[in-house]
Structure formats: C-alpha cells, structure tokens
Amino acid sequence: MAIKLISTKEASKLHGLKVTVYGPAGAGKTTLCATTGAPTVILSAEAGLLSLRHVDIPVIQCRNIDDVIEAYNFLASSKEAEQFQWVALDSLSEIAELVLASEKKLTKDPRQAYGVLQERMYELIRAFRDLPEKNVYFSAKMETQKIDILETRTNGAITSNVVVGTKQVFAPSLPGTKLGQALPYFTDLIFALRVEKDADGNPSRWLQTQPDEQYIAKDRSGCLAPFELPDLAAIAAKVHSTNP
Fold first, then answer.
1. What CATH number does domain 18-142+171-233 carry, 3.30.450.20, 3.40.50.1000, 2.60.40.10, 3.40.50.300?
2. Which of 23, 63, 170, 237 lies deepest, with the highest CB count within 10 Å?
C-alpha cells in the first residue's frame, strides 16, 4: 500500500469543522444554522424552525431513526449533497430521543433500551462527525451534570487523582447519563450558548468557548476568545486562519 503524507493543516481542512453548541430552550441554537455563510442542510428532529423563516435553507425532516440513517447515506454518497459545506443536526438531543423511543418499542427492559441507545448514538455521532470535507454543527439541549472534583496527590513515586467531592455544571443534554457525559469528547469545539442581559435588561448572546466552574466548554483550536459572537462563519474563519 502506498502511503500518502499530508500536513496537519491540510488534514484539519479536509475533515472540516466539528462543533457542538448547547444551551437552554430559546437561546438561539437553531438560529445558528443561518450563520454558516455557506451552503447548509439542516437535519431537523424538531418542529421549531420558525426562527429561520427569514432564510431559505434546505431541511431534511427526521421523524425516526430510519430517516436519520437515510439522511446520512444521502450526505455521504449523493452527488447532490456535494453542494453542502455545512451539515447541521438540530438537535442531537431530539435525534437521541427518536432512537430511544424506537428501542423502547422493541424491548420491555429499559436498561437494554438505554444500552442500545448509547451504542447507536455513538455510531451516528461518529458517522456524521467524520463526514469528509464537511463542517458539522451539532446542537443540543442543556442540563446540569454532577462531576467529580479531582485532586492530584503524590505518595512516594506514585501520583494519582483522588475524588475529593462533586459539583454541578451545565453541559450538553442527551438521554442516558453515560451518553451525555461522553458527548464533549466527540468534537474539538464545545460551546455553551449564553444569553445575558445588560443593566437595561437588553439580552445579548455569546458562545462560551472556555470551561469555567459552571459551564463545560472546549476549544482545541486555541484560536478563539473565551467568548465569541454566535456566528459559525466567523468562528470557522478564525479556526482555519494561518495566523490565529
């Protein structure tokens, strides 16, 4: 087999931007689909597309897991789908609910249904994340999660992390505890969509890109400010800039 070497810069552009944004209902996660600045297709498992009534973006309605799989096959192999530079799954939380509802119909054991949910969603998220030459935007609901507080301790030559307590943080929400906790590891960019009010009560929206004591977030690019305007095109430009 002939080995072809490419640079990390080339690889990052080949695989596209993969970003997860979570936030409360009404924060504007769906509206973000209109900020890509490039041909986009939305996989919608929700009825709430009213916020996009002012734009004309193609939508694939997903009412069950078969619709989601069919949409993936279309995007992965269809000539028509080559036009789309962005794929938006709105929302990943609702798609997971579709999968769970389907599995619950097939078994009387809830534990088995959640186990299959985890496996199928891992496969789906990886499949969409790894769509070549496409940027992928996953939106998700928000929930509070309990996470461990770790403390590094050294005993002689042995260093270990010890759980010294727990704390509540805001994080992406998916049905099933393990699935929700695993989601932040799938994409390089995890943002919390924050809505804050100024002294006059006027709301402003920001994407939090760095974690703090209250919110899970991640920016592996190292190109972004701790808070960015909710504009996917601007974020993509920053991440792919040769001079971050």
1. 3.40.50.300
2. 23
